[in-house]
Amino acid sequence: MTLPNSPFCPKILPHLHKDRSRFPSSPAFLLFVSAVLVLSYLLLTGCIVDSETSPPLTVTLQLIGLLHDPSQDVRRTAALSLGKIAIPASAPALIEALNDPDPMVRTFSAWALGEIGEEVETNGALALVRLLGDQHIHVKHAAGEALGKIGVRQIIVKLLIDVLMVGGVESRRAVVNTLAQLEAHSAYNPLLAALEDEDSRVRQGSIAALSELGDRQVLPFLRKRLLLDPDIGVKAEASYRLGKLGDVDDLSTLQQSRDTDPNPFVHLWATWAIHNITPTPQE
Question: What contacts 149, CB < 8 A, 6 or more positions away?
């Protein structure tokens, strides 16, 4: 099922739809302008190579050099290109680029490390955790998504839990999204506590993260959020997750929500969940 990208709609987690051709979220015109600028630069300087005849490592080394170019547009597109190639040899340079003064270079470098994935060493993962405190929202979320792709490492999960407990609101949002991808069972209790977070998107992300663990002990907490949470997105998320994880014991709660909640989004997802867990009559 494909759902619209709205805070009122349940989260379809990025790791369920991995696609190496996907760039991180950013304005389309920025990507286009950056690509044109760097391509022109490479053509003029003679640095462009034939990708069919040049080994990936050769291209990677050239792009690593461009991460230090004076032009921020060149550095941005170099980081994007390294993410497209995604070989571990570029990881140290991308980790260094996480300190770039330009926030888009930091964003694209974090994304590129995520594309390299589990082969990124722990020092890279630690650098990404640090970016969860970046002042720019896109950097925070790119770092969180990259951590989800790098995989579970207990020291990283512990640091993420620390950020969830004391970080700013955007950092907490990024952390719950990351934990949903990591499916780290050691984060169960902190995520339960985050269901009471003052920020609705943190609560919604916590519901998604807890549900991804597949532990049915979370069902009573989902029912509570569905009936008592004031936020539409949280209630829609709870309905969706009950429809995925719940059973006939959850039907009464879902029916109550469907029949009494005035919001059409909540009504929609409660109805969907009821349909999804209602046993099919045997012929």
Answer: 15, 18, 114, 115, 117, 118, 181
String of b and e for 225-243 (b: at least 16 CB within 10 Å)?
Answer: bbeebebbbbbbbbbbbbb
pTM here?
0.74
Please write the tens of the pLDDT for every residue from 184-216. Answer: 999 999 999 999 999 999 999 999 999 999 999
Looking at residue 108, its amino acid is F
Tokens at 134, concatenated: 């970046």
The CATH number assigned to the domain with range 27-151 reads: 1.25.10.10
Distance CA 279, CA 283 (A): 12
The full set of domain ranges for the chain reads 27-151, 214-278
Picking from 125, 88, 122, 89, the residue whose alpha carbon sits closest to that of residue 110 is 125
**Tens-place pLDDT, residues 228-274:** 999 999 999 999 999 999 999 999 999 999 999 999 999 999 999 99
Distances (CA, A) of 47 to 58, 73, 144: 11, 16, 33
CATH number of 214-278: 1.25.10
